[in-house]
Amino acid sequence: MADFNDKNRNIDEFDELLRAEQDQSYGGSVSRPDVSSAVVKRLPRYFRYLRVLIREGKTRVSSAELSRMMNLTASQIRQDLNCFGGFGQQGYGYNVNYLYSKICEILGVSFGFRAAVVGAGNLGMALVKSPMFEKRGVDVVAMFDVLPEVIGKKVAGINVYSMDELESKLNEYGVHIVILTLPKEHAKEVVERLHGTKVSGIWNFTGTDLDDGQSKLIIENVHIGDSLMALCYEIAKELD
Known about the structure:
By secondary structure, the chain is α/β, with parallel strands linked by helices. The protein has 2 domains: 11-107, Orthogonal Bundle (Arc Repressor Mutant, subunit A); 113-226, NAD(P)-binding Rossmann-like Domain (Rossmann fold, 3-Layer(aba) Sandwich). Helices cover 42% and strands 15% of the residues. The protein has 10 helices and 9 strands. It has helices spanning 11-20, 37-55, 63-70, 74-82, 96-107, 122-129, 132-135, 166-173, 187-194, 224-239; strands at residues 60-61, 94-95, 113-118, 138-145, 154-155, 158-162, 177-180, 201-204, 218-221. Strands 5-6-4-3-7-8-9 form a 7-stranded mixed β-sheet. It has a two-stranded antiparallel ribbon with strand order 1-2. Strand 7, helix 9 (187-194) and strand 8 (201-204) form a beta-alpha-beta unit.
Protein backbone atom coordinates (compact mmCIF):
# COMPACT_ATOMS: atom_id res chain seq x y z
CA MET A 1 0.00 0.00 0.00
CA ALA A 2 1.11 3.55 -0.65
CA ASP A 3 3.06 5.48 1.98
CA PHE A 4 0.57 7.64 3.91
CA ASN A 5 3.05 9.11 6.37
CA ASP A 6 3.16 12.53 4.74
CA LYS A 7 1.70 14.73 7.49
CA ASN A 8 0.45 17.24 4.93
CA ARG A 9 -1.64 14.68 3.05
CA ASN A 10 -5.32 15.53 3.17
CA ILE A 11 -7.58 12.90 4.78
CA ASP A 12 -9.73 12.85 1.65
CA GLU A 13 -6.69 11.96 -0.45
CA PHE A 14 -5.89 9.25 2.06
CA ASP A 15 -9.39 7.80 1.73
CA GLU A 16 -9.21 7.95 -2.07
CA LEU A 17 -5.94 6.04 -2.10
CA LEU A 18 -7.27 3.58 0.46
CA ARG A 19 -10.29 2.79 -1.70
CA ALA A 20 -8.16 2.57 -4.84
CA GLU A 21 -5.98 -0.03 -3.16
CA GLN A 22 -8.81 -1.85 -1.39
CA ASP A 23 -7.56 -5.27 -2.53
CA GLN A 24 -4.25 -4.80 -0.74
CA SER A 25 -3.39 -4.59 2.97
CA TYR A 26 -0.39 -4.27 5.25
CA GLY A 27 -0.56 -7.73 6.71
CA GLY A 28 -3.24 -9.79 5.04
CA SER A 29 -6.98 -9.79 5.56
CA VAL A 30 -8.35 -8.78 8.93
CA SER A 31 -10.51 -11.19 10.90
CA ARG A 32 -14.05 -10.39 12.03
CA PRO A 33 -14.61 -12.74 14.96
CA ASP A 34 -17.79 -12.78 17.00
CA VAL A 35 -17.33 -9.97 19.50
CA SER A 36 -19.69 -8.17 21.84
CA SER A 37 -21.97 -5.49 20.44
CA ALA A 38 -20.24 -3.01 22.77
CA VAL A 39 -16.92 -3.57 20.96
CA VAL A 40 -18.58 -3.24 17.55
CA LYS A 41 -20.23 0.03 18.58
CA ARG A 42 -16.84 1.44 19.65
CA LEU A 43 -15.19 0.73 16.30
CA PRO A 44 -16.72 3.78 14.55
CA ARG A 45 -15.31 5.91 17.37
CA TYR A 46 -11.80 4.65 16.59
CA PHE A 47 -12.51 5.47 12.95
CA ARG A 48 -13.48 9.06 13.82
CA TYR A 49 -10.64 9.77 16.22
CA LEU A 50 -8.01 8.29 13.93
CA ARG A 51 -9.24 10.59 11.17
CA VAL A 52 -8.62 13.51 13.53
CA LEU A 53 -5.07 12.30 14.17
CA ILE A 54 -4.40 11.93 10.44
CA ARG A 55 -5.62 15.50 9.83
CA GLU A 56 -3.21 16.65 12.54
CA GLY A 57 -0.33 14.87 10.83
CA LYS A 58 0.19 12.36 13.65
CA THR A 59 1.94 9.18 12.54
CA ARG A 60 2.09 7.36 15.88
CA VAL A 61 -0.23 7.14 18.89
CA SER A 62 -0.14 5.21 22.14
CA SER A 63 -3.12 3.54 23.80
CA ALA A 64 -2.73 6.09 26.62
CA GLU A 65 -3.08 8.99 24.16
CA LEU A 66 -6.09 7.37 22.53
CA SER A 67 -7.64 6.77 25.94
CA ARG A 68 -7.45 10.48 26.79
CA MET A 69 -9.06 11.40 23.47
CA MET A 70 -11.81 8.80 23.58
CA ASN A 71 -12.50 8.74 27.32
CA LEU A 72 -11.76 5.00 27.45
CA THR A 73 -9.14 3.20 29.47
CA ALA A 74 -5.92 2.22 27.70
CA SER A 75 -6.62 -1.35 28.76
CA GLN A 76 -10.05 -1.25 27.09
CA ILE A 77 -8.51 0.04 23.86
CA ARG A 78 -5.91 -2.73 23.81
CA GLN A 79 -8.60 -5.33 24.53
CA ASP A 80 -10.82 -4.01 21.73
CA LEU A 81 -8.05 -3.99 19.14
CA ASN A 82 -6.70 -7.36 20.24
CA CYS A 83 -10.05 -8.85 19.24
CA PHE A 84 -9.02 -8.24 15.64
CA GLY A 85 -5.30 -8.89 15.82
CA GLY A 86 -3.87 -6.08 17.92
CA PHE A 87 -2.13 -3.91 15.27
CA GLY A 88 0.20 -2.33 17.84
CA GLN A 89 3.79 -2.82 18.94
CA GLN A 90 4.99 -2.74 22.53
CA GLY A 91 7.08 0.34 23.21
CA TYR A 92 5.93 1.98 19.96
CA GLY A 93 2.16 2.12 20.15
CA TYR A 94 0.14 2.24 16.94
CA ASN A 95 0.99 3.52 13.49
CA VAL A 96 -1.96 5.87 12.94
CA ASN A 97 -2.35 5.32 9.21
CA TYR A 98 -1.91 1.57 9.50
CA LEU A 99 -4.46 1.31 12.32
CA TYR A 100 -6.89 3.53 10.41
CA SER A 101 -6.59 1.32 7.33
CA LYS A 102 -7.26 -1.78 9.43
CA ILE A 103 -10.29 -0.23 11.15
CA CYS A 104 -11.57 0.72 7.69
CA GLU A 105 -11.14 -2.90 6.57
CA ILE A 106 -12.96 -4.24 9.62
CA LEU A 107 -15.84 -1.80 9.12
CA GLY A 108 -16.05 -2.53 5.39
CA VAL A 109 -15.29 1.06 4.37
CA SER A 110 -13.54 -0.09 1.18
CA PHE A 111 -16.15 -2.72 0.24
CA GLY A 112 -17.96 -0.30 -2.06
CA PHE A 113 -21.37 -0.65 -0.40
CA ARG A 114 -24.28 0.91 -2.28
CA ALA A 115 -27.33 2.30 -0.50
CA ALA A 116 -30.82 3.51 -1.35
CA VAL A 117 -33.13 5.74 0.68
CA VAL A 118 -36.83 4.86 0.91
CA GLY A 119 -38.70 8.03 1.82
CA ALA A 120 -37.76 11.33 0.19
CA GLY A 121 -39.09 13.54 2.96
CA ASN A 122 -37.11 15.98 5.08
CA LEU A 123 -35.08 13.33 6.89
CA GLY A 124 -34.34 11.32 3.77
CA MET A 125 -33.22 14.42 1.89
CA ALA A 126 -31.07 15.59 4.79
CA LEU A 127 -29.32 12.21 4.97
CA VAL A 128 -28.64 12.11 1.24
CA LYS A 129 -27.09 15.57 1.39
CA SER A 130 -24.81 14.59 4.27
CA PRO A 131 -21.12 13.86 3.54
CA MET A 132 -21.10 10.98 6.04
CA PHE A 133 -21.82 8.33 3.40
CA GLU A 134 -18.86 9.22 1.19
CA LYS A 135 -16.54 9.42 4.22
CA ARG A 136 -17.56 5.91 5.21
CA GLY A 137 -17.32 4.37 1.75
CA VAL A 138 -21.07 4.11 1.12
CA ASP A 139 -22.46 5.30 -2.22
CA VAL A 140 -26.11 6.39 -2.17
CA VAL A 141 -27.42 5.52 -5.63
CA ALA A 142 -31.20 5.96 -5.48
CA MET A 143 -34.18 7.31 -3.55
CA PHE A 144 -37.80 6.16 -3.58
CA ASP A 145 -41.11 7.83 -2.71
CA VAL A 146 -44.84 7.71 -3.46
CA LEU A 147 -45.42 11.43 -3.98
CA PRO A 148 -45.76 12.47 -7.64
CA GLU A 149 -44.22 15.88 -6.90
CA VAL A 150 -40.85 14.36 -5.93
CA ILE A 151 -40.74 11.31 -8.23
CA GLY A 152 -38.46 12.07 -11.17
CA LYS A 153 -36.61 14.79 -9.28
CA LYS A 154 -33.00 14.69 -8.14
CA VAL A 155 -31.76 15.23 -4.59
CA ALA A 156 -28.03 15.96 -4.32
CA GLY A 157 -27.69 14.36 -7.75
CA ILE A 158 -29.61 11.21 -6.72
CA ASN A 159 -32.69 10.19 -8.74
CA VAL A 160 -35.99 9.79 -6.90
CA TYR A 161 -37.93 6.79 -8.24
CA SER A 162 -41.49 5.61 -7.73
CA MET A 163 -42.05 2.86 -5.16
CA ASP A 164 -43.44 0.84 -8.06
CA GLU A 165 -39.85 0.46 -9.25
CA LEU A 166 -38.40 -0.48 -5.85
CA GLU A 167 -37.38 -4.10 -6.45
CA SER A 168 -36.23 -3.62 -10.03
CA LYS A 169 -34.07 -0.57 -9.28
CA LEU A 170 -32.55 -2.08 -6.13
CA ASN A 171 -31.44 -5.09 -8.16
CA GLU A 172 -30.33 -2.96 -11.10
CA TYR A 173 -28.09 -0.82 -8.88
CA GLY A 174 -26.92 -3.77 -6.78
CA VAL A 175 -27.99 -2.07 -3.55
CA HIS A 176 -26.62 -3.57 -0.32
CA ILE A 177 -28.26 -1.23 2.22
CA VAL A 178 -31.73 0.28 2.32
CA ILE A 179 -32.26 3.32 4.54
CA LEU A 180 -35.84 3.66 5.75
CA THR A 181 -37.05 7.22 6.38
CA LEU A 182 -40.71 6.69 5.52
CA PRO A 183 -43.72 6.69 7.92
CA LYS A 184 -43.43 3.77 10.35
CA GLU A 185 -46.79 2.24 9.37
CA HIS A 186 -45.30 1.35 5.97
CA ALA A 187 -41.97 0.00 7.23
CA LYS A 188 -42.88 -3.69 7.50
CA GLU A 189 -44.44 -3.66 4.05
CA VAL A 190 -41.17 -2.39 2.57
CA VAL A 191 -39.17 -5.01 4.47
CA GLU A 192 -41.36 -7.72 2.93
CA ARG A 193 -40.61 -6.35 -0.53
CA LEU A 194 -36.87 -6.52 0.10
CA HIS A 195 -36.90 -10.32 0.44
CA GLY A 196 -36.73 -10.78 -3.31
CA THR A 197 -33.81 -8.38 -3.78
CA LYS A 198 -30.06 -8.50 -3.17
CA VAL A 199 -30.30 -6.12 -0.20
CA SER A 200 -28.33 -7.30 2.85
CA GLY A 201 -29.13 -4.70 5.49
CA ILE A 202 -31.57 -2.02 6.63
CA TRP A 203 -30.79 1.23 8.43
CA ASN A 204 -34.14 1.97 10.04
CA PHE A 205 -35.10 5.54 11.00
CA THR A 206 -38.86 4.95 11.13
CA GLY A 207 -39.11 5.01 14.93
CA THR A 208 -40.41 1.45 15.17
CA ASP A 209 -38.25 -1.58 15.91
CA LEU A 210 -38.02 -3.96 12.98
CA ASP A 211 -36.97 -7.57 13.42
CA ASP A 212 -37.09 -9.54 10.19
CA GLY A 213 -37.20 -13.25 10.97
CA GLN A 214 -37.93 -14.43 7.44
CA SER A 215 -34.56 -13.77 5.84
CA LYS A 216 -30.97 -12.87 6.58
CA LEU A 217 -31.58 -9.14 6.47
CA ILE A 218 -29.47 -7.32 9.06
CA ILE A 219 -31.40 -4.48 10.67
CA GLU A 220 -30.01 -1.53 12.61
CA ASN A 221 -32.85 0.30 14.35
CA VAL A 222 -32.05 3.97 14.99
CA HIS A 223 -34.01 5.96 17.56
CA ILE A 224 -32.88 9.59 17.50
CA GLY A 225 -35.41 10.45 20.19
CA ASP A 226 -33.78 7.99 22.62
CA SER A 227 -30.53 9.92 22.43
CA LEU A 228 -32.38 13.19 23.04
CA MET A 229 -34.16 11.75 26.08
CA ALA A 230 -30.89 10.40 27.49
CA LEU A 231 -29.50 13.94 27.22
CA CYS A 232 -32.59 15.35 28.90
CA TYR A 233 -32.16 12.87 31.75
CA GLU A 234 -28.56 13.94 32.35
CA ILE A 235 -29.52 17.62 32.33
CA ALA A 236 -32.46 17.00 34.67
CA LYS A 237 -30.15 15.09 37.04
CA GLU A 238 -27.86 18.09 37.23
CA LEU A 239 -30.80 20.39 37.91
CA ASP A 240 -32.23 18.26 40.76
